[in-house]
Amino acid sequence: MSGSEFATTLEGPISSKTTYLVSARRSYLQFLFKLLDLPIRPSYWDFQYKVDHKLNDKTSISLIGVGAIDDFSFGVPRESTPENEYILRSVPYINQWNYTTGVAVKRLINDGFVNLALSRNAFDNGLTKYEAAEEGENRALTLNSSSRETENRLRLDVNKYKNGWRYAYGVSGQYVQFTNDIYSVIRKELRDEQNNVVQPGIILDYDTRLDFFRYGAFGQVSRSVLNEKLGLSLGVRTDLNSFTDEGNNPLKTLSPRLAISYLIHDKWTINGSSGLYYKLPAYTVLGYQEKGIYLNKQADYTRSLHYVLGTEFLPRQDLRFTLEGFYKDYSNYPISIRDGISLANQGGDFGAIGNEAVSTTGKGRAYGAEIYLQKKLTGTVFSVVSYTYVVSEFAVLDGRYVSSAWDYRHLVSGLLGKKLPRNWEFGAKYRYAGGAPSTPFDLEASRRNYASLGVGILDYSRLNTERLQSFSQLDVRIDKKWNLNRITLDLFLDIANVLVSNTPGFDRYTFQRNEENTGFATTDGNELRPDGSNAIPVVLKNNDGNLVPTLGFIVEF
């Protein structure tokens, strides 16, 4: 139990052949956010279970499941600040649930084993948002979406070891069902005083159903040679589907992979690998319709070619050092025809990605290097430190490369733990990230549309041409344990952002409120016009930083 959630885990034997583990977690962040006077009220449950049963000496069966319920709503803050008003008007109500459950059978055979797994996963997502300028019961909807995706999967793989060779092969199949009922106002139609259209309306309003199969096959072989110093691994797979125009062509997604590892001596290893990967576009992309026609049925699998080269140094048993360079080349990436940008640069809001016509002609690239150091717990100290330099860029519709949403350039992560006398423990976690790319507002379009959408409109002609300030945060935690008869009690204090560092966020576009906070202020004292032409625009900075202490306890019995 802590300041934000309660969790419980139970595990043990059911019989000599059967064991179980079940856990559940419930948040009460809504109470914490109410104390902090934030208008958002997030709430969630999540669950897990696992049961292992040994049928006989050669066969075992496992049942596994995870699930979650998320409810994102709002409350009335005590103080109506511009920041709180922005949140209330820009973020939709969210109601989600998801689960994955399955059964796996493992059977030992001569020189190996066989796995057979059957599973089902489902994700239900509901979003609701109202027109920002309206109050009361008669608010107009600007977003009402209800979607569900369900996958039923069957996978069979064979793994064998013979005469120094290790090889595996298998097949998989999925039956996919996807529904999406959506009404979304992208742009509201606006007219001037002479009733001339100054902005055409763009509204998504469709109901889609997908019902198709996905299937694939793979094979892999590996062996160590030269007195176990050289390790070689070669694999290939292909993925197909019954929906897209060329989905049943196995050569379109043929994906070879190669990995090489060479032991220079007992402490130094050089590793290299390359692989081709294909990924089917998201179901929201495949299910997009206009006048009953699936416009993205011709979409290709996203293609990604990876290269990795690195080294590993083990000076002693508890110390590990790695240095790795990587390059990733993307093609066939979905690009929005409406906005002309890669879908890789969408997703910063609370909506759904892919409800639009796309062209799978996009390109992207990511490259960089990572240094990693790990000190295992052999005495009283453990630590992990890593530094990554990364460049991530994706091309827009005209072929120009621009920074992607993940182009942070510099990433640092550190973790330190120390065991102290009398069952005290101290831990610290540090994170640093370079400034995230950001896109400035299209001020004219933002002014025209804020009254209905509650958010500013980004200027995609200047996509990610600016950057936020860098981010850094230090968290510390102190634990005290008591080992009692059959019970262990752990009392902890966790302080997030102990240095009260600012957390840079994207600017927020809004309109100035009147002194009574009953509506928007205007330049002429009249009601706000639908096109916002008499509004007073305000751009709110978003870089607050809060120290968040949490006191809690853990009981083990």
Question: What is the secondary structure topology, with strand pairs?
Answer:
Layout: E1 5-15, E2 18-27, H1 29-35, E3 40-54, E4 59-74, H2 82-90, E5 93-109, E6 112-130, E7 141-162, E8 165-187, E9 190-191, E10 197-199, E11 202-225, E12 230-241, E13 255-265, E14 268-279, H3 283-286, E15 289-290, E16 293-294, E17 302-316, E18 319-336, E19 358-375, E20 381-395, E21 401-403, E22 409-420, E23 424-433, E24 437-438, H4 443-453, E25 466-467, E26 471-484, E27 487-496, E28 508-511, E29 537-540, E30 548-556
Antiparallel strand pairs: 1-2, 2-3, 3-4, 4-5, 5-6, 6-7, 7-8, 8-11, 9-10, 11-12, 12-13, 13-14, 14-17, 15-16, 17-18, 18-19, 19-20, 20-21, 20-22, 22-23, 23-26, 24-25, 26-27, 27-30, 28-29
Model description:
The protein is mostly beta strands. The protein is 6% helix and 61% strand. The strands form five sheets. It has a 22-stranded antiparallel sheet that branches. It starts with a strand and ends with a strand.
- Mean pLDDT, all residues: 89
Radius of gyration: 27 Å
Contiguous uncertain segments of 5+ residues = none
How many β-strands, per DSSP? 30
Q: Structural class of the secondary elements? A: mainly beta
| Biggest sheet layout | 22 strands, antiparallel
